[in-house]
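Working notes for the structural subgroup meeting. M.R. asked for a predicted model of this chain before we commit to crystallization trials. I am recording the input and output together here so anyone reviewing the notebook later can reproduce the run.

Input as submitted:
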Amino acid sequence: MQEKVEMLCKEIEEKISNITNLKDLTDLKAEYMGKKGIITELQSGIKDAVDKKEYGMQVNTVRTTFNEKYENKLKELQEEELNRKLESEKIDVTLPSKRIRQGSKHPMTRIQEELEDLFVSMGYDVYDGPEIETDENCFQKLNLPIGHPARDAQDTFYLENEYENYLLRSQTSTGQVRVMEANVEKGPIRVVCPGKVYRRDDDATHSHQFMQMEGLVIDENVSMADLKGTLETFCKKLLGEKTDVRFRPSFFPFTEPSVEVDATCFKCGGKGCPLCKQTGWIEVLGAGMVHPDVLKMSGYDPEKYQGFAFGTGLDRFAMFRFGITDIRTIYGNDVRFLNQFTKGDEHNETK
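Returned structure, recorded in token form:
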């Protein structure tokens, strides 16, 4: 047995030393250590050996020899393979690199995030409602019953028959309805609802799809003074601290009293220019005190709670902020248009 072991060890050493690739080394391992391999068969013969201890020691010597030679050869071949790859795939670090095109946040994303941050800092929650709504949530629970003439200004896209099934929401006020109804305790609310809305418009200043943000506050002893202070803070933070705000009486079915809110033209500072049509003012949003009927329809007691609501188009603020003259440009996904905002990011990163 001793003589056979020495011959096997010598044979293993010679065969492994002559191998030049990983495939042949793997095949050799199967030949010696596989299910029907030479060393495996030797190991299975222990049960028939006269001196099992001595026989086992001899088999173990062969197995140890093979494993040591195999591991050394494996490491050697792997290093050679790696060196070949490094040599054939080496990179000339002196060559100029390819410029990676950097993306940029869309202007609408910028405005939305900026407004969300502002209102969250003022204690508001952000609610993102569904874009497909019922006629009841979009109109009826906002005090616009079927046949109300104010619906004409918000003509939207119905999925089937008008008044009967679902539609694409024409205003994010639907989020206010859902928040009020979800508040089962009927306690105070302070929330903003940003998102896409849809109307049958399509020209330089109107789009069939655009972005709105609605705000809703409900609590005891809420007044127009609270609304005015909120909107003045909102306009000054977004358009500049020198911005003045004025309120004009208006009409919205879901608020009473209602106001249109104007801000001094950011371009001329209120002096008058073509942008503001020489008036010095630009209309930025609509607002008012929540109508008692709207509170009732969502389960609130108008004798105990009052509230105010406001809504603005985010697209309009994006056009003001970035000097965009055609709203359709915002949704055209033209890379030349979007690249202008990438440059702004690069400028901010170098500050």
